[in-house]
Specification:
Layout: E1 4-9, H1 13-22, E2 31-35, H2 38-50, E3 54-60, H3 69-77, E4 86-91, H4 96-104, E5 110-113, H5 118-135, H6 149-156
Parallel strand pairs: 1-2, 1-3, 3-4, 4-5
């Protein structure tokens, strides 16, 4: 089975812990990694890619020291290795212009304001990972127990 990774990025440990807790239902099926900065996330992505692993989803806060979440997600969207990686911006402090940049430049698939609803974040993650598996042409069957069935049925019809 291919190794699929989810990377969660936030400079605040308590927020990162909450995201990891909300996504814990995915731990049995995917590697859920956490990073406290954009640079740490990019370094991890390079390592995982070099090992032949896939990065299905990146969930990032926006306001962080160094690179912002929009800058991180934009960089990811412009890297040919990660062109199909799904991206989510999770923030409480993005301006209207930041949000427009996230959509236009980073091509995010979803945007959540803090505080978010845990079940909605999990459902969105499942749906985006399912889309990623089909976009990459991977065999979806090993993950059938966790995938978003509505996406599977739509993609197969």
């Amino acid at each position: 089975m291919d190794k699929l990774n989810i990377i969660c990025v936030d400079d605040q440990r308590e927020v990162l812990s909450a995201v990891l807790k909300d996504l814990s239902a995915l731990n049995e099926f995917f590697h859920v990694e956490d990073c406290e900065s954009a640079d740490e996330a990019l370094e991890l992505m390079d390592e995982l890619d070099a090992e032949g692993e896939y990065i299905a989803l990146v969930i990032s806060d926006h306001v962080m020291p160094g690179k912002t979440g929009v800058e991180l997600l934009t960089e990811i969207s412009q890297d040919a290795r990660f062109i199909k990686t799904k991206k989510v911006l999770l923030t409480g402090q993005a301006t209207h212009q930041d949000t427009i940049s996230a959509i236009n430049r980073a091509r995010i698939e979803s945007y959540f304001e803090k505080p978010w609803k845990a079940d909605t974040l999990l459902l969105t993650a499942r749906s985006l990972i399912t889309e990623y598996i089909f976009d990459m042409g991977l065999d979806y069957q090993p993950w059938m127990d966790i995938l978003d069935n509505s996406v599977v049925f739509r993609r197969l019809s």
